[in-house]
Amino acid sequence: MTRAALLIIMALVGVPLSAEAPEFDHGLFGDVGYEFHIFARLFEQEGTQVWNSEFVRRTISGRTVTVQLEGDSIVVLAKFTPYDQDGDTVMLVAQGQTWLSVQGTEGVRYRTAFKSLPLALGESLFFFPLGVHAAGQSSDSMNLELEVQLHKVIDRRNGVGSQEQ
């Protein structure tokens, strides 16, 4: 991914990624839900962070949270779905899709990944939608990193309080 294309992503996603999360509708979801904390970071080849954004999304077990980043020649779509498990662990289904227009051709590269894994509440999951670029690649290569953390949210109206792990 070239620097110019990723800088366009930074400009386009600045508003949606920093938007406030919708209020948690306890009447619809019940007493327990999940809160995703997602940190998006862009690194130059030598490891210097050049952009970041953070946002929060709330959901329930079985309902997907989607992150979409769009640029001039790229679309990155990441979907995360938590499923209740015993204790402080959820089964997280993660799907990533990337469409990249190849400069100088009319072709589009498509990559996809799908993984189900147990995740402890509060633990970080790292997702690299463009892959991780190795040393020695062109100097305009950049790495896009999504760090995902999941916390449990409990309805405060019942006197239980909020639990974040």
TrEMBL record:
Keyword terms of this UniProt record? Signal
**InterPro entries (alphabetical):** TonB_box_CS
So which residues are the signal peptide here?
1-21
Q: What is this protein called?
A: Uncharacterized protein
**Annotated source species:** Spirochaeta africana (strain ATCC 700263 / DSM 8902 / Z-7692)
